[in-house]
Amino acid sequence: MRRVGLRALMVVVGVALLAVYASAAYLGYRLLAAVWLARADLLEVVLWTTGLAILLSLLSYRFGTLRLLSQVEATDLPRSRAPAVHDRLDRLAERMDAGRPRLLVGRIGAPNAMALAGVRGGAVILDRSLFHLLTADEIEGLLAHELAHLERRDSLVQTLGYSAGQSLVWVVVVLALPFVVVGTGLRRAFDWIRGRPPTDALAPVAALRQRVGRVVMVGFLALTLALLAHSRRREFAADERAAEVTGDPLSLARALRKIQRATKPRWEMASPLYVSGDEEGALTRLLSTHPEMDDRIDRLVERADRERGAVSIEIR
Fold first, then answer.
1. β-bridge mates for residue 114, sequence order
2. Helical (H) or strand (E) element with 215
3. Distance between CA atoms of 280 and 71, rounded to whole angstroms?
4. Which of 177, 263, 274, 303 has its CA 20 to 30 A from that of 219?
5. Which residue numbers delimit the Peptidase M48 domain (predicted)?
């Protein structure tokens, strides 16, 4: 008899918990509805919040760029030391809508080049080793590729996209929170109804926190994958633009092949200076900032074949 009474008490507790969680979820949606009804004020809040997020992103981008310049020991390359390179950059700048960026050299740590829009007028950094590794035409193809990034403002778009994505993730969290509350309440209630109450009194709070954390994690994972996919697409687009402007896709293809061979495998794929993306595995390719070098080279070679109407060319 006593056992039956205890089971009945557990059922009552479970139903009460379900009612409490359901009420909390209902109140949450009532609050969201109230906020929606006051959307005139809400719009103002959203605009101010968005503006602040953009401002902070721009400041972070600006100071992050300055820090990166310091890290790679970037210095201006005087025209007197490389007049031919400056002349080629001048001609490219006239053909493209990127302005005339500063030309710098640095110690990136691997044969590489970078375009930075966070510097006034923009800047292109060449690793010192490139001048010993590439021909003049190959350096021009690489410069055109980096100018294409400046022309499309790729790095700025990535930064603002990440900030906007963060805001969107938190909006999703707010909208999903009532569902999370209901799901947690159902689980806790059925635990009691089945006669298996949690041993930890704070277990419901911990479970709710875990569920919200999962929503945030999934949101940021989706945001990261989307930005990485966009980063890979912009590399292909920059290659195409460089080939279009120079009229010599094979020079860029040869430059990429030489960089691929000279780049040491210790570079991590998460590095902002990472250029290769050639490691094995679908997951590695999915998380890479750049497409596989072989894919980029193949596309450039195919473009050269189409333009020349020639047989297939192999870049070794």
1. 125
2. helix 203-246
3. 29
4. 274
5. 81-303
Residue 238, both tokens: 């920059």
DSSP 8: H
> What type of residue is 304?
A
Ranking 34-38, 68-72, 125-129 by mean pLDDT, the lowest is 34-38
Q: How many CB atoms lie within 10 A of CB 51?
A: 10
H helices of the chain, in order, are 2-37, 39-71, 83-95, 130-133, 136-152, 154-193, 203-246, 249-262, 282-286, 293-308
Residue with tokens 């039956």: 4
Name the residue type at position 19: A
Bridge partners, 105 (sequence order) = 75, 126
8 Å CB contact between 126 and 73: no
Amino acid identity for residue 87 in this structure: D
Sign of CA dihedral 257, 261, 262, 264: positive
In this structure, how many other beta carbons lie within 10 angstroms of the beta carbon of residue 34?
Answer: 10
CA 35 to chain centre: 31
Is pLDDT above 80 for 79?
A: yes
Residues 6+ apart with CB under 8 A from 109: 72, 127, 267, 273
For 14-37, write each residue's pLDDT tens digit. 566 566 666 666 666 666 566 555
Q: DSSP state, 17?
A: H
Spatial distance between the Cα atoms of 165 and 159, rounded to a whole number of angstroms: 10
CB 242 within 8 A of CB 148: yes
Residues paired with residue 115 on neighbouring β-strands, in sequence order: 124
Nearest-10 crossing angle of helices 83-95, 203-246: 100
Give the whole-angstrom CA distance, residue 179 versus residue 69: 46
Give the integer Cα–Cα distance in Å for 102 and 8.
78
pTM (predicted TM-score)? 0.65
What are the tens digits of pLDDT across the range 156-204? 777 776 666 666 666 666 666 666 666 666 666 666 666 666 655 545 5
